[in-house]
Task: inverse folding
């Protein structure tokens, strides 16, 4: 029996977290198995910098929809591991522009086959679902961008349906 599944809507955030944790464990185990010293938390920022670099810190935060402090934390870890480098923008000295370092560039060929496998496995699992999880997630994200969960709960508490 899966008590969290039985709680349905009440446990939505917990189930999403559990699903995320399951993925992160699998990705981390895959990196270790193939001898790639890379943290799953770095992936989205690393890929964005690899594909769009040089890119400013705020642009990373905006494009990924995550907080500036969260981006700074990951960037600091990537710089510490010599996977990225940052330099002040020539046009705007307040901006830090991020690019992959030589070590980061060298790591890409090790990471890409693993990422390709992740994509294939995810596509295969989603093809077996009644509803496409990515579409459902996008729909929820749009609704929450339009109006926060907090605001919706406050309305429900003040004006129960």
Result:
């Amino acid at each position: 029996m899966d008590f969290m599944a039985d709680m349905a809507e009440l446990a939505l955030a917990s189930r999403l977290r559990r699903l995320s944790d399951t993925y992160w464990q699998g990705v981390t185990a895959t990196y270790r198995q193939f001898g790639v010293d890379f943290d799953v938390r770095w992936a989205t920022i690393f890929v964005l910098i690899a594909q769009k670099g040089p890119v400013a810190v705020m642009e990373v935060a905006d494009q990924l929809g995550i907080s500036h402090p969260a981006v700074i934390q990951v960037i600091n870890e990537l710089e510490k591991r010599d996977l990225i480098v940052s330099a002040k923008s020539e046009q705007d000295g307040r901006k830090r522009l991020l690019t992959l370092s030589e070590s980061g560039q060298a790591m890409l060929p090790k990471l890409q086959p693993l990422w390709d496998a992740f994509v294939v496995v995810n596509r295969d699992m989603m093809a077996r679902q009644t509803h496409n999880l990515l579409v459902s997630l996008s729909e929820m994200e749009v609704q929450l961008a339009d109006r926060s969960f907090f605001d919706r709960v406050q309305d429900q508490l003040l004006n129960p349906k």
Observations:
- The first strand starts at residue 55 and ends at 56.
- Residues 89 and 95 are 5 Å apart (CA to CA).
